[in-house]
Design goal:
The protein has 355 residues and is mostly helical. The protein has two domains: 101 residues; 245 residues, Up-down Bundle (Hemolysin E, Chain: A). The chain is 87% helix and 0% strand. The chain is elongated. The protein starts with a helix and ends with a helix. Keywords: Membrane, Transmembrane, Transmembrane helix.
Length: 355
């Protein structure tokens, strides 16, 4: 009896397990079929939407074409009613417009474009150079003279005082020359802009050869002279600085060895402090002069290249300069208009110098 119960229990368990397995398989296949059906439905919907969108576009295009066709027929009927003279005028206008848009825009000749572009580039770069006003350099002259008088009379600089004073005065003179040359360069630079404008206007009216090369050459020579004077001032400053260093050592020894606390000793200490200030002054001048020198050297190179181009024009290196087209002249005139804008900074610098 016990064996029968055990058999029935085992059979019931197997049946339950089999039902669970069947249920699991059913759910799996049903879910898979449902998902496939849903995906298929989505694809069909997407296809329907795409087809509908294409149909809408087709309908819109058809409407536009029909409207265009109707309007064309309407305008043509109206146009056919105009007199022959008006029809001819319309035809000429259409032909001219077609030619205008079909023919490519004329370009300036190679030389003219190179000449105008290089000139604009050079003056634009000049405009970015922040050269100091000449007064800023010449101000060192007064300081050097005062320091020279003070050191020459100071007992603390008994051995080196005269040499230091002499070099300071010489440096002051060199700085004055550099400042004056810089002032001349600014004024000449302002004139260069004006002269260029005049020369281009002359070409526009008379188609004459460009005579601008001489102006550029003169300006380049003036820049070279300024470089020379600035370099000369820097060399003098360097020698003066060496003498002052020796003089400071002498003054320090004088103060240390001077035993009494007299007025002369106090004055020597003041003179030593002033001399140290002059050293800082000369150091700042060195930085200033070096910057100006580098800028002017680079500037001179650019002016040399430009004057070479100009010389080729005036010596007949470019024969087509006498056959300028309207396009060339228009391009040059546009170049002048750009240069007028860059001229403003030179004017402001000149006003700063004279003010």
């Amino acid at each position: 009896m016990a064996g029968f119960d055990e058999f029935m229990t085992k059979n019931a368990n197997n049946t339950e397990t089999d039902l669970k397995e069947r249920k699991r398989v059913y759910h799996y296949h049903y879910s898979k079929e449902f998902n496939e059906e849903e995906t298929k439905q989505d694809n069909n919907n997407s296809s329907d939407i795409g087809i509908k969108a294409d149909d809408d576009i087709f309908v819109i295009m058809s409407c536009l074409l029909n409207r265009l066709k109707k309007n064309s027929i309407l305008y043509w009927n109206k146009f056919s009613q105009y007199p022959p003279q008006i029809k001819l005028s319309f035809a000429i206008i259409i032909i001219l417009l077609s030619i205008y848009f079909m023919i490519p825009t004329s370009q300036p000749s190679y030389f003219i474009k190179k000449f105008a572009d290089s000139t604009n580039d050079i003056f634009s770069e000049i405009n970015t150079i922040d050269l100091p006003a000449s007064d800023a350099i010449m101000a060192h002259t007064v300081s050097c003279r005062r320091a020279a008088n003070m050191i020459e009379r100071s007992p603390a600089f008994k051995n080196n005082g005269k040499m230091i004073a002499s070099n300071l005065r010489l440096f002051g003179e060199k700085v004055m020359i550099a400042g004056q040359d810089l002032r001349k360069m600014y004024r000449k630079g302002s004139f260069v802009f004006t002269a260029f404008d005049i020369e281009i206007d002359a070409m526009m009216k008379k188609l004459e050869k460009l005579e601008y090369a001489d102006i550029i050459k003169e300006f380049r020579i003036m820049v070279a002279d300024t470089i020379k004077s600035v370099t000369d001032a820097e060399n003098t400053r360097d020698g003066t600085e060496k003498y002052i260093i020796e003089g400071i050592r002498e003054a320090e020894n004088f103060i240390v060895d001077f035993k009494s606390n007299s007025v002369e000793l106090t004055k020597s200490k003041v003179d030593l402090q002033i001399t140290n200030d002059i050293m800082k002054h000369l150091h700042n001048a060195a930085l200033h002069l070096d910057k100006v020198n580098k800028i002017l050297i680079d500037y001179e190179d650019k002016l040399y290249d430009l004057s070479t181009e100009m010389s080729q024009i005036t010596t007949g290196g470019y024969d087509d300069i006498l056959n300028l087209s309207k396009t060339d002249l228009k391009y040059l005139k546009n170049s002048v208009d750009i240069l007028k804008k860059t001229h403003d900074k030179f004017v402001r610098k000149e006003n700063l110098i004279e003010g």
